[in-house]
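Quick one: structure tokens for this chain, please?
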Amino acid sequence: MQNQKREPPPRILVLDPVRPSSLNQVSEEFFKAKASLGFEIECESLADAPASVEFPSDEALAAAAVARRVSQVVHQGFRAIVINCFLDPGLDAARDLTRIPVVGAGESAVRIALTAGQRFSIIDVGPIKYACRSPTRQVLSMGIAARFASIRGIGVPVLELNRRPGVTIKKIVREAKIAAAEDGADVIVLGCTALARLAERIRLNLPVVNPALSALRTAETLISLGLRRRARSS
């Protein structure tokens, strides 16, 4: 009986749309630890991207870097690509460049939140604490504004989120409880993938959606289902 050739494990490319830093090592460790059996993870940061993605100018630079990198790897055998940033920089451009699934962390987290509750709030990061009940541009583009409750900031910049994890978690819990009590949220979406390792330590009486893990599981599911994007018309 001839030996059957075994198929190589499906490879997922995780793009951190930021410059190399200690956060990239944290990201790589998280994704490789959480990947389902039979999937192979490769993580990359982008030297021509910003240090973090918090403002529109950061998002524009990150989007360009993502598009450039995706155009370079389309024929390298990856079965899916994850953009590891809640703002999904370059998502549409990346999808225009390849037929394999390209998953945005923000989009996947919000989609999953819609199955876990009726109205979601995003607990965001950033240097200034804020609260807004108007749907964000990202939410509006997804056509789900009716299910949006609010977005609330915790006043911690991205690069400082993991320096004092206990403080970060405390602030997330505080804002999430306010979102539930005052805004009517019954599911919480974490608004930054840098919170990936802290997500499991957040204790609330409502679901908390981790965008990094949501993106990974979405990519794995799309691969398992054999779904690819429609080819562009010639």
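The radius of gyration is 18 Å.
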